[in-house]
C-alpha cells in the first residue's frame, strides 16, 4: 500500500486526495512487496470490484502553532 500524508501548506487552499481500492478474487498471494506490474497484472486477471474515494482538505492560515498539540491524536 502506498500512503502519503494529507499535509497541504497552511493557507494554500483546498487540496483533493483520491484513493482507489481494488478487490481481487482467489489466487496466489503476493510474495513480498509486489511491484506495479505485478499488481496491475493481478487486477487485470483477478479483479472483481473497484471503488474510489475523493476527499478534500483545507488547512487555514495559522492552524498549526509551534509547539502546540492542536489536532494531535492520543
- What share of residues is helical? 10-25%
Output the helix-strand order: EHE
Poorly predicted runs of 5 or more residues: none
The main β sheet shows up as:
2 strands, antiparallel
Q: Which strand order does the major sheet show?
A: 1-2
Strand-residue proportion: 25-35%
Category from helices, strands and their pairing? alpha+beta
For the termini, the CA-CA separation is 24 Å
Number of strands: 2
What's the gyration radius in Å?
18 Å
Query: Which outline best applies?
Result: elongated
Q: Can you give the mean pLDDT?
A: 80
Supply the number of helical segments: 1
Give the key terms.
alpha+beta, two-stranded antiparallel ribbon, elongated, 2 strands, 74 residues
Question: What topology does this entry show?
Answer:
Elements: E1 15-24, H1 36-46, E2 47-57
Antiparallel strand pairs: 1-2
Textual characterization of the structure:
The chain is α+β, with helices and mostly antiparallel strands and about 70 residues long. It has a domain at about 15-55. About 15% of the residues lie in helices and about 30% in strands. The protein has one helix and two strands. The protein has one helix at about 35-45, and strands at about 15-25, 45-55. Strands 1-2 form a two-stranded antiparallel sheet. The longest helix has 11 residues, at about 35-45.
